[in-house]
């Protein structure tokens, strides 16, 4: 399988599984990802996802440039019927953690930018190298990178195609943690299980408030988040959370 899915303890582990091609995205991987993200978004048993690459060299190097098929129709037809590939399926209120285990290049970095948490192994490298192959970081890179790191750094990366190291990515805030390669999967699992043990509706509403709030004036964002708090106020899980606290026991959340 070009992409593997395993669900354990409410966590979906999504692994790009073409290490021999640096986990680049061929048409089969894109088809698998479309199906898998739909499952992650809709399966009530799944509360959070971890996206990573097989092996220790590469998270994902973007489009498989050796297998990209020539277009069979004009771009207008594709764009107006299907929209963008890959990223729209990742749009969901369940959190996604990128566990970046090596190169995150081109569309690979763009997928990582579409995730909510980014953690990396110390050998990871990050680049939007599309200008070097006569293309453009057209998934979200030209928009998301300048919002994720200082603009001067983003412009250098976008215009020169130069890669940065894990240490630089940590310094610029592109990732929150850098660990030895052998510790990456455990760290991803530990964050994912923490998120999965929290109340699912609360986690999703929190992501929605933070993500949508970024594009709102502050006062609107604050008011919107208060409405979301109100949406959660009457949930069974909030009652359970407060009750469990009083009874000094772990809460049992049901997403209701
Ligand atoms: C990452 C590298 C610098 C690593 O170099 P290294 O020397 O360590 O390893 P290699 O020998 O180069 O790689 C091993 C093996 O893997 C194959 N490989 C690696 N990456 C790709 C790839 N992206 N496509 C196909 N094959 C790949 C490599 O050929 C080797 O195979 P072998 O010879 O052993 O058979 C280095 O690999 C590197 O620079 N890779 C390319 C990175 C890159 O340029 N990525 C950008 C691709 S373009 C893109 O992602 C786009 C996304 C997009 C935008 C908008 C809408 C949809 C998608 C743009 C686009 O598609 O136009």
TrEMBL record:
Organism for this UniProt entry: Aromatoleum tolulyticum
UniProt record, GO biological process: fatty acid beta-oxidation
CDD domains in alphabetical order: crotonase-like
Name recorded for this polypeptide: E-phenylitaconyl-CoA hydratase/naphthyl-2-hydroxymethylsuccinyl-CoA hydratase
One Pfam family in the UniProt entry: ECH_1
GO molecular function annotation: lyase activity
Membrane-crossing segments per the record: none
UniProtKB keywords: Lyase
InterPro entries: ClpP/crotonase-like_dom_sf, Enoyl-CoA_hyd/isom_CS, Enoyl-CoA_hydra/iso, Enoyl-CoA_hydra_C
Recorded family membership: Belongs to the enoyl-CoA hydratase/isomerase family.
Superkingdom of this protein's organism: Bacteria
Gene3D superfamilies assigned to the protein according to its UniProt record, in alphabetical order: 2-enoyl-CoA Hydratase, Chain A, domain 1, Lyase 2-enoyl-coa Hydratase, Chain A, domain 2
């Amino acid at each position: 399988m070009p992409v593997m899915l395993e669900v354990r303890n409410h966590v979906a582990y999504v692994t790009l599984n073409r290490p021999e091609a640096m986990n680049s995205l061929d048409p089969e991987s894109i088809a698998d990802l479309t199906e898998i993200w739909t499952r992650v978004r809709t399966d009530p048993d799944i509360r959070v996802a971890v996206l990573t690459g097989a092996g220790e060299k590469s998270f994902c190097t973007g489009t498989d440039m050796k297998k990209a098929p020539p277009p069979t129709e004009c771009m207008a037809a594709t764009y107006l019927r299907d929209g963008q590939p890959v990223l729209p399926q990742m749009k969901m209120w369940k959190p996604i953690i990128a566990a970046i285990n090596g190169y995150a290049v081109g569309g690979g970095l763009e997928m990582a930018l579409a995730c909510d948490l980014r953690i990396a192994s110390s050998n990871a490298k990050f680049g939007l190298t599309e200008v070097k192959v006569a293309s453009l970081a057209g998934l979200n890179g030209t928009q998301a990178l300048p919002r994720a790191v200082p603009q001067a750094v983003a412009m250098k990366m976008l215009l020169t195609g130069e890669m940065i190291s894990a240490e630089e990515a940590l310094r610029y805030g592109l990732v929150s943690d850098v660990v030895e390669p052998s510790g990456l999967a455990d760290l991803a699992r530990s964050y994912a299980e923490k998120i999965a043990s929290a109340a699912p509706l609360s986690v999703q509403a929190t992501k929605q408030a933070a993500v949508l709030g970024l594009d709102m004036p502050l006062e609107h964002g604050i008011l919107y988040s208060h409405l979301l708090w109100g949406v959660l106020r009457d949930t069974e899980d909030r009652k359970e959370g407060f009750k469990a606290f009083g009874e000094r026991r772990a809460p049992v959340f049901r997403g209701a």
